[in-house]
From TrEMBL:
Keywords: Isomerase, RNA-binding. NCBIfam families: pseudouridine synthase. Belongs to the pseudouridine synthase RsuA family. The gene is rluB. InterPro entries: PsdUridine_s_RsuA/RluB/E/F_cat (IPR042092), PsdUridine_synth_cat_dom_sf (IPR020103), PsdUridine_synth_RsuA/RluA (IPR006145), PsdUridine_synth_RsuA/RluB/E/F (IPR000748), PsdUridine_synth_RsuA/RluB_CS (IPR018496), RsuA_PseudoU_synthase (IPR050343), S4_RNA-bd (IPR002942), S4_RNA-bd_sf (IPR036986). Its EC number is 5.4.99.-. The lineage of its organism: Bacteria, Bacillati, Bacillota, Bacilli, Bacillales. Gene3D superfamilies: Alpha-L RNA-binding motif, Pseudouridine synthase I, catalytic domain, N-terminal subdomain, RNA-binding S4 domain. Residues 2-59 form the RNA-binding S4 domain. One of its GO terms (cellular component) is cytosol. This is Pseudouridine synthase.
Length: 244
């Protein structure tokens, strides 16, 4: 069961806010009866009309995108910059990104029109792992790596524990690659965690979102999720557990 205004928005007939206005104005009928109560629950078998015209219920779709750098994680941009939605112009459904990746960060990001799943994935209580590979300078010390694992104090509070692995290091050039797995989603969190330790992130890519990787994708490539992947995502948020 879904809320009436959400189903209308998913159909593409109106935005969520406009749908609420239509309901309040008495222009929406559910199985032939006028509905004015926001949040009314509807099922897939219910007939919904706006001004007597049936809505087309939108099929739920799910995509994984390898976001390039220089792309906005938004539906639209007031400066006309490329957004993640622009890579799916052939998709008739109204997509929106699950969370965000910074403009100068590349990597895995999900897009869907399934608001129920998206909201759960973005909520910190569900602790979905996100794994990043960061090219940094200078080479972190063992103590700095330990601090990343245990938590770093930022201006908006202490970060949760993280998983950290030194991938490569070049002390002559003063640079290293570090793999970092976190489940929080604060703004520019990975960059700020390193910055708090006087380490600069030169390049950042999100390699994995939960169990989903970028295998077989290049920057700008996207693919639909497989049925078992969608089922696994729902399993993650319903059990609050990560697959091994």
């Amino acid at each position: 069961m879904e809320r009436l205004q959400k189903v209308i928005a998913q159909s593409g007939a109106a935005s969520r806010r406009k749908a609420e206005q239509l309901i309040a104005a008495g222009r929406v009928k559910l199985n032939g009866q006028t509905v004015t109560v926001l949040g009314t629950k509807v099922s897939a078998s219910d007939e919904i009309t706006i001004d007597g015209i049936p809505i087309d219920k939108e099929e739920l779709v799910y995509f994984l995108l390898y976001k390039p750098t220089g792309v906005i994680s938004s539906v639209k941009d007031d400066r006309n910059r490329t957004t993640v939605v622009d890579f799916f112009k052939q998709v008739p459904q109204r997509l929106f990104p699950v969370g965000r990746l910074d403009y100068d960060t590349s990597g895995a990001i999900l897009l869907t029109n399934d608001g129920t799943l998206a909201n759960k994935l973005m909520h910190p209580s569900f602790e979905i792992d996100k794994t990043y590979i960061a090219r940094v300078s200078p080479v972190p010390t063992a103590e700095q790596l330990r601090l990343l694992v245990s938590g770093v104090l930022l201006e908006d509070g202490m970060t949760a524990k993280a998983k950290v692995q030194m991938v490569t290091s070049d002390r002559e050039k003063g640079s290293a690659s570090v793999r970092l797995t976190i489940h929080e989603g604060r703004n520019r969190q990975v960059r700020r965690m390193f910055s708090a330790l006087d380490i600069t992130v030169k390049k950042l890519k999100r390699e994995r979102y939960g169990f989903l990787s970028l295998d077989g994708l290049h920057p700008g490539d996207g693919r639909p999720l497989k049925p078992h992947e969608i089922k696994t995502l729902y399993h993650l948020v319903n059990t609050k557990q990560q697959p091994l």
